[in-house]
Amino acid sequence: MTTHDATVGRYFEDYTVGDVYQHPFGRTITEADNVWLTNLTMNTNQNHFNDHFAAQNPITDGKVIVNSGLTVALVLGLTVYDMSQNAISNLAFTDIMFRHPVYIGDTIYAESVCTETRRSQSREYAGIISMTTRGLNQDGTTVVTWKRSVMVATRDSGIGQGYFPESTDSVTDYS
């Protein structure tokens, strides 16, 4: 029997400039998601929670629009598995652009293209990857885009590895 160590995500050496990463998960936004984040962030814009008020907004087809903070957080979260699971630090987010409204009931997906890789000059155990990310709705319409740079551990750093505990049981029979 082979034991496969608990590892998730990519290391610095795994990225290639120009490669596109279609992140594997999608997430449908619920009304509760939108209300919770809107309340948590104390965003008082009624377009996020008042149907009657939002019906007067010509930009959103008269529907409640999802809080843009939720859109960013969700798309960022969808990218973690591929782009920053083994990140040491986020370094930059720039050029965030909201391209299309997001509504309750939309399912959001994300993809990123690696735009640059370089070894860290100050941290021998890390490299820096840069990417452009876009969030898409269920129809394939781009809803948000941005550029991001992340410091990611190298494989030989040991960071993010070897964390799974050794069993203290002498039992090896899994049946």
From TrEMBL:
PANTHER family: BETA-METHYLMALYL-COA DEHYDRATASE, MONOAMINE OXIDASE-RELATED. Pfam families: MC_hydratase (PF19315). It comes from the Bacteria. GO terms for molecular function: lyase activity. This is Acyl dehydratase. It comes from Brevibacterium marinum. InterPro entries: HotDog_dom_sf, MC_hydratase, MCH/BMMD. The lineage of its organism: Bacteria, Bacillati, Actinomycetota, Actinomycetes, Micrococcales.
